[in-house]
Amino acid sequence: MSDAFGHVTQHMALHIVTMNVAAPLAALFLRNIQIRPLDMLAGWLAPAAVFQLALLWLMHVPAVFEQISRSPAISATTHVALLASAFVFWREVIRLAPTSPWRPIGALLITGKIVCLLGVLLLFAGRPLYALPHAQGPELSGLADQQLAGLLMLIGCPLTYVFGATIVASRWLLRMDRPDLAPRTGTGAA
């Protein structure tokens, strides 16, 4: 990413790509592949959502964020953990959407709202939350960098979570309107 963007903005862009692009696409492409450890997590939508949110918020506690920012190894480890937690969340959303759509819709909307709250905090804080000497690029002050990161988050959240919930809801409504599209239950009934 360009040096014109500060450290916090670059960090947030990586979060958005990790949680909102890579994880849902991986879950979508791997939805029909059995992954034994993940199959044991079936039914864990709520814990996956809580873990993903807790990890994201923990990563943005100022003291933790500053430690992550000082070490490329810690940064890489936390981003891999975030990718894994988001993947489990999206895998459960995709798995449950055809048979129990209200759960993924609720999880997507609640998760999206709580993620957006972090973006609001970064955008509207009156001072920089992070004391990073390298957080100031040639174009951005520490506060402007943080605000741009928050704005990116506020754009990325609705685009992914609300859009995902809209897709699940529209498919649910379509199935309600057209019984021939309802998923088979495996009981022999058509």
TrEMBL record:
Protein's recorded name: Cytochrome c oxidase assembly protein
Membrane topology: Multi-pass membrane protein
Keyword Transmembrane assigned: yes
Keywords: Cell membrane, Membrane, Transmembrane, Transmembrane helix
Protein source organism: Microbaculum marinum
Main location: membrane
Compartments in which it is found: Cell membrane
TM ranges: 12-30, 42-61, 73-93, 105-130, 150-174
Pfam families: Caa3_CtaG (PF09678)
GO cellular component term, pick one: plasma membrane
